[in-house]
Amino acid sequence: MSPSARKIATYILDAGVALYFILCVAIVATGGFVFHALGLRISCQSLVNPLGILFLLIVLRLVAGRNKNALLCLGSTVFAALVFLYGLEAVLYGKEKKAVAALSAPAVPTAAPAASVAGKNYDPLRNDGVNWTWGHAVRNNAWGFREREIVVPKPDHVFRIMVLGDSLTWGAGLEEAERYTNLMEDALRKDGQQAEVLNFGIQAAPTTKERDILRQFGPRVSPDLVVLGFCYNDPQPRSANWSKERARLEDAYAVVASLRYLGMKRAYHFLIDRVDNLAARHHLIPSWHEALDRVYQQGSPEWTAFSQALSEISAWAREYTGQPPVFAVLTQNLHRGNAADFAGTPEGRWFARAAQEAAARGFVVADPAPLFAAGFSAEELAVNPLDSHPSAKCNRAYAETLLRTIEPMTRKGRP
């Protein structure tokens, strides 16, 4: 091949590599939506085919350009990928900032200086889940919980409630004072009771972990009542969308997960969602509803462990407090329709199944469904447009329901 012909071939293959890379990323990023919307029929049974063709194009480019241009080809491809991904991160950050700013606008006048939280400028986008949750500072006690320091032994004449739970109890996206545990304590004290409602919520904690927390800290806390806050993914100790099929694609997901270590957290979540949708669409993995529904099947390992954990929590509570524990159903999805409609959704069936199991294991069930059926708009249910965790209004409904449920149990805490 003459030098001029090789040069032309090199340019053509460079263009092919670049265009096909953009196409692959676009398919993954949109789940094929844009292309289907344009009427283009693109068959992509897995990521292996497009990535394999991309690899072939790069090899051809290396052959055409001989070894002297190999590093240039590889470097330019990596550079193009990084430019695209950082650009995606910047776009997503801008959309996130705009959404949260619009939500926060009524509470923070534009002419006012930025509020100071824990000595730093308030930033509603500060959300690492460790030190900050959507602009709210996270303060942990010596035991590692988002709660005040706990006095041990328990003071005399104090009615102490120990609340276990996951991120919904922990208070994702909320100030501490907005959580249902804090609201319960405020209401009990206004009623003249010397009460403490202690929050032992842990983010992403399954019920089996909550049982372990009760075993470890319960004897030191000496509670008079135990409350278990429940979300429908709590029987699954892994992520809610975990499945055997998804685990087989772990290597592919690990490639996308590496973006988090390059400062592209938003791009990571965006692409992971698209990869999930694409894989589920082509039946490589079950949808997250299908995956979690397997957990609720009688006899599944996860359900068996969940049921056992409920039994052990109930037995511990009855032995140490003399009262049955309370199972708090932390629902928030009734905006799908009325109570009858919600009961037919996967979430509704899961909540009902778990509540039935808890009652069979000796829990008193507190279900705020009637309050949600009375009317919650979709905007009122979530902490912000970017995070579906329960809002402060949802937490008020949880607190109201629990206070009615535990009223007979707290009588000994009255002066």
Report on this model:
- This protein has 415 residues and is an alpha/beta fold.
- 53% of the residues lie in helices and 10% in strands.
- It is built from 17 helices and eleven strands.
- It has helices spanning 3-30, 33-37, 48-64, 70-104, 167-170, 180-190, 207-221, 244-248, 250-257, 265-281, 288-295, 301-321, 339-343, 346-360, 369-373, 378-381, 392-406, and strands at 116-117, 120-121, 132-133, 136-137, 159-165, 195-201, 225-230, 326-329, 364-366, 382-384, 387-390.
- It has a five-stranded parallel β-sheet with strand order 6-5-7-8-9, sandwiched between helices. It has a two-stranded antiparallel sheet with strand order 1-2. Strands 3-4 form a two-stranded antiparallel ribbon.
- Helix 1 runs antiparallel to helix 3 (48-64), helix 6 (180-190) packs across helix 17 (392-406) and helix 7 packs parallel to helix 12.
- The protein starts with a helix and ends in a 9-residue tail after the last helix.
- Residues 28-48 and 105-120 have low confidence and may be disordered.
